[in-house]
Design a protein that fits this description.
Number of helices: 19
CATH topology of one domain: Rossmann fold
Strand order of the largest sheet: 3-4-14-9-10-13
CATH architecture of one domain: 3-Layer(aba) Sandwich
Number of strands: 15
Helix content: 25-40%
Distance between the termini: 30 Å
Length: 494
């Protein structure tokens, strides 16, 4: 398996050989500013898929990841999966009885003739779905760096959950330092406490005066400075790193097995369909579902659920992609989705254009110069329906109503982002088609909104009591690339 850039590097036209997975893991952004993508998506037959049905999560992860990673020997990759996907790593919340499942599926009930379920993805150490992939990424980084005798400085941006998941996965890892940018004052109190309370010597939090898109733009500018990136061994841990995205592919397969366990007619020739609703900010989570579908998983609909920052919803409905400026990006009660410029969207467009790198480059140069592009009359726009993509958006009022409804009807408390997912999922329910909504985080991370919705405090496990009162260590900075480079050079591995 080899990887090339969405903008042409490491491809036939560039004269550069595609990169193996380990190089893609450490590279992050390609030198031309593009994102790395498999030269070919591996295919899985219905017969092979059904043989995976009773595998443990670690075994399933190995079966799927080995199709994307062939430059790490099989036994080592298997051990890394077993080290990552252990019950004790995913037993930090109320679902400890299901910890061995890693991502247990909870049936809520039947609505409009469809079974509506929640895929629990937030039982890891930082209580967010990012832990599922990030824990693997930490172990992959440590292994690859050791074998290559290298060190790296990870530079990332977070709107809330990626930062803490990355830091908890990388803390104490040999040869790794983490520099994480976050928008000042735009995360929940719990999210800030999770990140800023870490005292590890290899963790550096930088609170940027701006919005998430400003943080992400600085990360991109640093990566585009090849001399700086090379000198200071800059690597990515956001979902611009394909290792993050491919790790998330696994739980779509795991959820499909759980959702169809009683479905009649699933044979070696025919597999039952399932729809997935995915709260979407940076587009990496739903992109993983797209990859699973391209591999052969019978996904009927991939539902992109956004909040008031509905740039992606607008695109999937109209074909028009227009990013918002910082001042136009709204601050909402589902803050991890307060994103206007989704970094993984370029990968999807590249695939939508049948891997036309020159066209992809032009479109995303138009994003930088003109603020967006229009594919409404392009034949590629018709492929969106073929890929099963639909979308919708949610507001603060919708979130509060859904949180109240799910608590009252099913006795489950959900976080605001998951509420966005359920709200939009209900718009696409079909009789006989299971609907799986991907949970994004534990509700206690957004206790202010939960209390507003339910009129009572959100339950909190004992091991997270008082986290907001812990001492904090972080730097503040303006959105200035020169200042950021100086900070990195003063604190990094060389």
């Amino acid at each position: 398996m080899a990887y090339h850039s969405t903008r042409g590097a490491f491809g036939i036209a560039s004269g550069q050989a595609p990169q193996p997975f380990s190089a893609a893991l450490l590279t992050g952004l390609a030198p031309d500013g593009g994102l790395l993508w498999p030269v070919k998506i591996p295919q899985v037959s219905a017969q092979e898929a059904l043989q995976w049905r009773h595998l443990s999560y670690a075994q399933l992860a190995f079966a799927i990841l080995s199709k994307f990673i062939d430059d790490i020997d099989g036994e080592t990759l298997k051990q890394l999966c077993e080290k990552t996907y252990r019950a004790e790593v995913y037993s930090h919340t109320r679902a400890t009885e299901n910890a061995a499942d890693i991502t247990p599926l909870t049936l809520l009930g039947q609505e409009q003739g469809a079974y509506l379920s929640l895929l629990a993805l937030s039982n890891g150490p930082t209580l967010a779905f990012k832990d599922i992939a990030m824990q693997l990424l930490g172990n992959l980084f440590e292994y690859v760096l050791h074998t290559q005798n290298q060190t790296i400085n990870i530079l990332g941006a977070t709107s809330g959950d990626t930062g803490s998941a990355a830091e908890y996965a990388m803390r104490g890892k040999k040869g790794v330092r983490v520099f994480m940018l976050s928008p000042y004052g735009r995360m929940s109190a719990f999210q800030q406490a999770q990140m800023f309370s870490l005292q590890d010597d290899n963790i550096f939090n930088i609170s940027l005066h701006g919005v998430f898109d400003d943080c992400q733009d600085l990360v991109k500018r640093i990566n585009e400075d090849l001399a700086f990136k090379t000198r200071y061994h800059i690597a990515a841990v956001n979902s611009i790193n394909f290792g993050r995205v491919v790790a998330q592919v696994v739980y779509y397969w795991k959820a499909w097995f759980a959702a169809t366990s009683e479905t009649a007619g699933a044979t070696s020739e025919s597999l039952a369909q399932v729809s997935f609703a995915v709260p979407s900010g940076n587009f990496g989570n739903v992109l993983a579902g797209h990859i699973a579908r391209r591999m052969g998983l019978p996904i009927r609909k991939l539902i992109v659920a956004t909040n008031e920052n509905n740039v992606l919803d607008t695109f999937f409905r109209t074909g028009v992609y227009r990013v918002r400026k910082s001042a136009e990006t709204q601050e909402t009660s589902s803050p991890s989705m307060d994103i206007s410029k989704a970094s993984n969207f370029e990968r999807f467009v590249f695939d939508l254009l049948q891997q036309d790198a020159s066209r992809t480059r032009q479109l995303f140069e138009d994003v930088e110069k003109k603020g967006g592009f229009d594919l409404s009359s392009d034949p590629a726009f018709k492929r969106i329906a073929e890929y099963g993509f639909v979308s919708g958006s949610s507001t603060h009022a919708h979130r509060l109503a859904v949180i109240r409804d799910i608590a009252g009807r099913y006795g489950q408390i959900i976080d605001p982002h998951t509420a966005d997912g359920i709200k939009v999922a209900r718009e696409y329910l079909e009789p006989g088609i299971p609907m799986v909504v991907l949970e994004t985080a534990q509700p206690l991370k957004f206790s202010e909104t939960i209390e507003q919705a339910l009129g009572r405090p959100c339950p909190r496990p004992v091991n997270f009591e008082g986290i907001e009162a812990l001492p904090r260590r972080f730097a503040q900075m303006k959105a200035d690339v020169v200042a950021l480079k100086q900070y990195i050079s003063e604190h990094c591995n060389e």
